Amino acid sequence: METLRSHNPLLSLLFLHLLQFSSLSLLSSAYTLPNKYFINCGSNSDVSVTGAPNRNFISDENSGSFYLVGKTSSVSDTNTSNSSPLYQTARIFTNPSSYVLQIDPSGTYMVRLHFYAFSSSKKNLSNAQFNVSASGFSLLSNFSVQNPIINEFMLTINVSEFIISFTPTQKSSFAFANAIEVFLAPNITDVSTPPIHVTPSGARGTYDGLLSQALHTVYRANVGGPPITPNKDTLWRNWVSDDDYLVTPNAAKNSEFHSDRPAYRPGGATEYSAPDLVYQTAKELNVNSSGGSNFVNITWRFNVSKNAPHFVRVHFCDIVSTSYNDVLQFNLYLYSKFSQNIFPYNVVGQLAVPFYEDFVVDSDNSGLMDIIIGPRNDSITKTAFLNGVEIMEVITGSGLVTEVKKPPKKHLFVVVGSVVGSVASLLMLVVVVVVFLNCKRAKPVEPSVWQAIPDYGGGSSYVSTTERTVNGFPLDNLNLGLKLSFQEILFATNNFDTKLMIGEGGFGKVYKATLRNGMKVAVKRSEPGNGQGRPEFHTEIIVLSSIRHRHLVSLIGYCDERSEMILVYEFMEKGTLRDHLYILNGESQKSSSQSELSWNQRLQLCIGAAKGLDYLHNSSGRGIIHRDVKSTNILLDEDYVAKVADFGLSRLGDLDQTHVSTGVKGSFGYLDPEYFRCLQLTQKSDVYSFGVVLLEVLCARPAINNSLPGKEVNLAEWGLFWQKKGQLENIVDPLLVGKINPNSLRKFGETVEKCLKEYGVQRPNMNDVVWDLEYALQLQQTARHREPHEDSTTDASWVLPVPAIQQLPSHSIPIDEYDIPMDDFTDTSRLYAHGVFSMLNIDDGR
Predict the structure, then answer these.
(1) Catalytic residue of the set 60, 276, 628, 791
(2) Has domain 2-184 been given CATH number 2.60.120.430?
(3) 233 an active-site residue?
(4) For 162-197, how does the pLDDT look when each residue is reduced to its tens digit (9 = 90+)?
(5) 469-799+826-831 domain in CATH 1.10.510.10?
(6) In the prediction, which pLDDT does 580 show?
(7) Does the N-terminal peptide bond of residue 53 adopt cis geometry, omega within 30 degrees of 0?
(8) What pLDDT score does 594 carry?
(9) pTM of the full predicted structure?
């Protein structure tokens, strides 16, 4: 991310980070400069921007290769003399809206978003506040523009239609964009060699799966040289001087290469890795005339996001050595605890040949990243140099891709248009009938019966109209008996001691804490003063204060004062279910070698989670739909008891209602396709999501893995493919191979297949799922021979005894047979004797 200088926006117009981790075998020497997409937003005319070569930004009103979906308008700058033509118009979005681009071929694309907050007669663009998402990633959150700025991202696109969505964060707010660029980048790196992974402690590893993440450009610096403007760069990039980032400026001196061009060599850096000017200048250790130096190293310090992975590329070109006799090697340090030997001659075999080194560096809690170079004792020449630095933040959380419908194309001739229009109308009628039949199989319901919990999206914000309302919704039904003072929270968390922080996500930070009575709890705190997530905050309080079950995480209390939003849960010692299945975040997306869960244990965990969901659907008396069932929302206590967590997206209604029309919420990879298609939420939507979880448990891999071949990316589709072939054992977690009874696996596979049926009416309810899973567990434990047809029965009641359900009197908190007796509710120390709730790794979803 970089700020444009207001006195000359053209000089800072376009910058592009051309790292390429694409699977394409494109050679950079054969790369052709792109001609799409360069979009001039909010204008009915094209704009040509000078560069090498020029680029033509086309109007977003008259293109046939992309289209807009949603309610939009355009505005113009009232003072056009202060900006380039590209920034004199903007597209305004007052509701969630999207650009839909036709993409061919697949690969890693650069996405650049231009924002210039001018004032017009209609809007002051500096008042905008919005979110931007694309390709399942949240790119910008609560974003507002005070200075002209370009945000640049790199994403892998393997779909034919690429969607960039703009969503205002409040009803009174809006979103805007001045220009958009999306184009395929040249292949300038070897995808077969993953970058080195570096932690703040100096640990070294490899970072796999970078293709499945998005990258956000933070810095691009020309070390030892002046700023490089887009018209001097082969791909319109903008490089700043490194001088502002030097910790000790006197430790370095500038070096310059006086030859015409660097000596590019096959397999190394190219003119697309960085322009000639980057490799023709460098910072070198300031050595005095006697060959010594008063400085031991050169340090650059950059402000970065805390506790986040960052892709770092450092550029080298040996322009400081005078001959091959001066064999030069030196150390590159990251956070001073990690060192890498840089030996240019050993890498490229001659002087003045550009090359680079790639790393993924985890930032620490300071928000600072140090890049250091220093001489080595075994080097003939005691110096060090650096030519360029690029830093990009790795965006690991994925979100929901909004479904959009392509508008009908205009026809040029009246006669042809009439004929085509008639045919289209007929086809549309057929489609409407089919969709109506598919989406109306359940009894319709008026939305008014579902108003106990309001339907808020992830982008909703708190509107401070009154102490007793949130976006018009009365808060009188919050359980005030659970309210905790902020002072109690400060005591429990030791003033939010960072040493007690065990997680961080979209809602905020999570701390392991201890209340005054000695109870261990998990404290989830939203960022102070941030209204984002307040509707979900109240939703979770309303839901969890009215239910209690052994397989649902319990709410201990909440704090809603001093603009704070704090939830206090029982502590879950063993973390999330996903933690025990596989490792993400670049280390591995397959099963973890540390997993100790047997098939018996996995089945028991699935049964527990299914019982929790069944209670929500049927036994709570409220008909609650969770709406975000996934492996990170199933937590394990110290005794490996599974509990369903995170009810911020839940919906609540009467049990005799079968579905409700609502905006799509949830997590990518777990969404019920019928819910996504028809916008009708049912309890069977949770059943579908749970079917995906069952496959995660069996296969020990994530629901979506973009680093895999196309047909394997979606776990639900991949699992159903093998299940229908009768060969589900082919994708079982390697740690379970040979350890699952075939009859148990067959029953489990049939349960998964039923949960993942295309239409909700074809899926079982959660009670049936519980029975099927218990039957699969019994087949595993008994391992006795049965005929195949016996194991495929839906009703297993003839095999398993029906547990007696103890009906206890309750006015507000229903209890099932596994729960603590009602008498214990008067003693909170006994109620939460197990002291449970988890580190809540809120790294995706809410």
Answers:
(1) 628
(2) yes
(3) no
(4) 999 999 998 889 999 999 999 888 764 555 578 999
(5) yes
(6) 92
(7) yes
(8) 55
(9) 0.50
